[in-house]
Structure formats: structure tokens, C-alpha cells
Structure of Salicylate hydroxylase:
Amino acid sequence: MFPKPPNGPDLVVVRTLPMVLLPISDDRRFHTYRLSFQTINTHFTCHMSVSKDFTIAIIGGGIAGLTLGIALHQRSIPVHIYEKAHHFGEIGAGVSFSSNAIDAMHVCHGGVHAAFARVATLNAWLSKSTVWFDYYDGMKSGASPEGSQKLFSITTPVGQNGLHRADFLDELVKLFPAEKAHFGKNFEEVSEGTDGKLVLKFADGTTAEADAVVGCDGIHSRVRRMVLGADHPSVEPVYTRKYAYRGAAPMDEAVAAIGEEKAKNAAFYLGNKGHVLTFAMKGGAQMNIVAFHDDPEPWTDTVHLTKWSTQGAALKDFEDFGPDVKKILGLTPPELNVWAIFDMGNPLPTFTKGRLVLTGDAAHATSPHHGSGAGFAIEDSAVLAELLADERVKTPEDIEVVFSAFNDVRLKRDHWLVKSSRFVGDCVEGMNPDIGMDWEKFHQEMVQRYDVVMGIDISKQAQLAKDNLHKRLA
Ligand SMILES: Cc1cc2nc3c(=O)[nH]c(=O)nc-3n(C[C@H](O)[C@H](O)[C@H](O)COP(=O)(O)OP(=O)(O)OC[C@H]3O[C@@H](n4cnc5c(N)ncnc54)[C@H](O)[C@@H]3O)c2cc1C
């Protein structure tokens, strides 16, 4: 799909800046976006500065909060982030982004994309530069002497790009002014002050004022309680009856175990009541491993969604799987982290109330079977920042209208993700009654569903939201 001049080297187009071409001389090395970042560094989008008579408080400094904070700051909108931890940080785990998320990074600010580009690792083989995942039959019955058999590939314009979330957060933090980030601020509640300002109360007894609050406080959101009411049936996330072992292995060990093609390029092992996926990260030094398994039992500790388990337990869960899956699990440490997969299975009727709004996992925590929870959070940030920056939005009163316009364009798409991701989670484990283990039927489903995930022009959606806003303001 990329142009190749006669007798020239292979070329990769930096998608968002189509004029920038990067020669790739060796199709077996890990190519990252590092070069492209240096090339595009001077091309950051400039956002108009329009003075605003309001201040935004963001609760939570994860991917949703930071990308929104950066997008607002770059648009000269007064903004503060209140984070309950004592520094910005992420539990160590891999994450990847599809093309819709990468486009949204650009809309937020070119620096967000550059931050991503500095830490993302693509598939190693140039022949797989557009592959999102190669799908394999992960079961014993699907294995030949060479290991798991390939069934099909899902491709995207940007292929696969794995990164360690902590690395991404470290890069994003550099783009947000330190004096506007407040740590150790465990948000408890918000009320309206006498002067019309919103008063935020924190667990340490301190307060802060703002004209509007954006809840980016993740799956256990406190702001969600303020928006819906503490007793609302959609306030609590729901266990999807799946958990995931997460780990990473040194790439040389992974290559020795399962071969270069599967280790250095994104691979997805379909199975019965379980599935495993891997992709390269850390510049190709590590292979990220996520092994999901069905859980007949409830997850009783709804406060802590992770716990320690063992490699032995993982191998037992996957005992009916083929040799590749077992070799992958054999690369994990003796003790490894298990994540309970919760989502907003009871969709929120609205993301907003007055001058409060929710984005990211606070609004639409999803199971990760589309690999898109964080990506959709960045879409939220892009649309909300564009709305707040609109020149007609000047006063605190206008913000309520902005939040309604945001809700109108985002609610349906964000709800779709949660529902579709559950559907896919069942399909990849042979648990959908209509599809079973008919992997070709599943392939067709995936093609259609990834069209929805990636087939969005986020700038256009932001424009639609602005049109809606203008009508409402008029
Ligand atoms: C196994 C797994 C794999 C995944 N893989 C992918 C993937 O490949 N691609 C993808 O796009 N997504 C993926 N996701 C989803 C993604 O991780 C989340 O959607 C994303 O991290 C949500 O970001 P967030 O900022 O909304 O929430 P969080 O990351 O949870 O951040 C919330 C922040 O708010 C803070 N906070 C919470 N409460 C308060 C409070 N009361 N006061 C102040 N601060 C508070 C927290 O400390 C935290 O910093 C995956 C998820 C899982 C579980």
C-alpha cells in the first residue's frame, strides 16, 4: 500500500504527514517511530488562543486525564489536574493503539502523538507493517509440528504498535505544566459555592475551585457517582467473568521458544474458554503477554481488580492449548499479576450533569477485547478539547452546553465499544453460541467490527459536535 520508487529502498509513509518518507533498509529489525518523531517535531499543530473566562478541573491523571489536560493547555484553556496518587504513573503493562486513537492524538496535540511515537514499537517484519494481529488456532487440535496454525490476519493502516503504558505516561507528563498538576488529591465530592464556582473536596481536607469538572478518574470513578447519583444501577462496573494474566518476556527468549515470526510480530491465539495475545514493546527488547481466561466464579473483591497468581495456575488454565501457548506462558515469571476484567455492562444513560462530565474509563470502562479503551479515551479528549476551545464558548454557562454536545456525539460510540468488546471476548474463546469455533465466521465479524473502531474521522466528529454546539448556543 505504500509507494515504492523504481529501484529505491522500501519506504514507509508517516501516515499523518504524507510527505515524510522514511527508508527502512532491513525488514527484520524492529522499526519504531523514533525517526519519524525527529522529522515531524517541527510540525505540531498550532491551536488558536482564545481567552476563556473559566477554569476546568480534571479529576485523574491517567491516559484520559493527561491527554485532555495537554489538549486544553495547548489551547490556552485554564486547566488543573487533581490526581490521588503521589505522582503520575501506571501499573506496568503493555498497551497498543489503533489508527483511530493515533488520529485522535494528533487532534489533541502533535506532542501527544510524538510522545506515543517515541515509545511505540511496530511489528518487526516490514511485510507485517499493516498487520494488527495474525490470528492463530491456539488449541492442541490446531497445532502442526511447526506450532499453531495461522488462520487469518486483521490489518490496519498503522499496523501494530505496542508500548509500555508507564513509558507513554512518562512522555505525556512532560507536556503538562508541573504547577497545574496536584498530587495526593483524592477527590471525594463536589458542590456549588456561593459565587457559582464548583467546590471540589479532597480526602486530605483541602478544597479547590473550578467552573467545571471532568471525571477522568477511571473505572471506580467518584465523579460518576455525582453525575448519576450513588444509588443508580449504572454506577458500579460489572465483572465480565474473565481475568487476564499479564507479563512480559525478554525477546531473545521468546524467539527461541516460538520462533521469530510469532515473537516479533503481533500474534493472537484463539481458543476454548481462553485466548492469548502477544506483541513486541520496548523497542523490541520485550514481548508483552496477555492470557485471558473464562471465570465461572464471581470476583468478590470489587475494590482490588488485580491479584497475584502463579505461572503454574496459568499453565493449568491453558492445559488444553497447543504448544505455542504453553511455551509463551512458560516465559512468564513464577509469580504473575492477574487482572479482573470489569466493564460498564450497565451503560450510563448520560455522561454529563450540569458542569460535570465523564470521559475515559469513568464513562465507558470496557473489556479490552478491541484493544481500544484507552484509544477511545483519547478520542473523548480530542472532541472535548475542540468543543471547549470553540470561540463561541466563553463563559462558565456555555460549558454546560459543551458537555451536552459532547454527550450527544460520544455516548453511542462509547457504548458500542463496551458491548462489541464483550461480544468479541466471547467469540475469541469459542463461547458465542452463533459462532462457536467457526473461526472464518469470526473473521468476518472482526473485519466489520474493526471497520467501526477505525472507520471514524475524529476531526469530522469534533466538527459535528461543534455544529451541535452552535445550534444549542444559538
Ligand atoms: C488487560 C487490559 C488490556 C488493555 N489493553 C488496551 C489496549 O491495548 N489498548 C487500549 O486502548 N486500551 C487497553 N486497555 C484499556 C485501558 O487500559 C483503559 O481504557 C485506560 O487505561 C483508561 O484510562 P483512564 O485514564 O480513563 O483511567 P485510568 O487509567 O484508570 O486512570 C484514572 C486515574 O484517576 C486517578 N483517580 C481515581 N480515582 C481518583 C480520585 N477519587 N481522585 C483523584 N484521582 C483519582 C487514578 O489514580 C488514575 O491515575 C486495556 C485494559 C486492560 C484491563
